[in-house]
# Entry
Amino acid sequence: MQTLDEMKPQQSPELLKSLHILTRDGKINQDSRRKLKQVYHLYNFIEPILEKMNKENEHYSIVDHGCGKSYLGFILYDLFIKLNLGRVIGIESREELVENAKVLAKKLKFDRMSFINSSIVEAENLVPGHVDMVTALHACDTATDDAIFFGLKRKVKYFFLIPCCQAEVARLMRKNKSASLKEPITELWRHPIHTREIGSHLTNVLRCLLLESQGYKLTVTELVGWEHSMKNELIIAENVGVKKGNAQARILEILRLFNLQELESKFII
Ligand SMILES: C[S@@+](CC[C@H](N)C(=O)[O-])C[C@H]1O[C@@H](n2cnc3c(N)ncnc32)[C@H](O)[C@@H]1O
# Structure
């Protein structure tokens, strides 16, 4: 596991300063330290897959959805991508974040790093060429779903998803609650806090089944060490070309059980 005290030789102090992780005199800025620690922790999961991907296609490309300030993209580039021929494209709907990230990438001469100011849905037509990996770190609400659909359409080999707040399913569960109350299973989401938690859990379960129904093998785990973040689930998916036979039947059954049939067209494709 990499820590801040064990910076790799290729790491750019300039990048850490620009991300406000190092102060001007080269000391660690404690406020930003936590964010960097989180991204390093995630990097430890991604690195072996980057090695594999680079062997499969040295001109690999990664699309980071809802990239925000692009901490993840910059760290991936600084630790790995700059040593080979890959590229990373950040998609972000907030223009000012995209402009700032572009300026920083230019300053650091991270030439194979680019950004598109767009929603994830519209990015489908804006990202050129082949895409090998989709990442989405805390992309809000349904933006994680959009990232999954983007990746499925582009037939990416790998996904790295750390979902954020999942409100859509909980919203529907709330809306349909009174119609479901006669079933004992509704006890699982009768209280509002349970609606939110089961809704969030169910969203990720359905996302996993969707990916499995499309030929992906999954590792679903906890990003331990993210002690300050509640959004702690990591879904790693690799396209192995074998569709899980019962995945769609299970999606349908779960949607029926939880009275969420409105979501059928979203998870059955
Ligand atoms: C919680 S932030 C996470 C940013 C970054 N990935 C990180 O972890 O530091 C989510 C970002 O996703 C962007 N976003 C949300 N929905 C989006 C969408 N549908 N299309 C593009 N960007 C989106 C937001 O503007 C925001 O910058």
Summary: The mean pLDDT is 90. The longest strand covers residues 216-222. The pocket of S-adenosylmethionine is lined by residues 66-69, 71-72, 91-94, 97, 119-120, 137-140, 143, 146, 164 (CB under 6 Å). Residues 30-164 form a domain with the Rossmann fold fold (CATH 3.40.50.150).
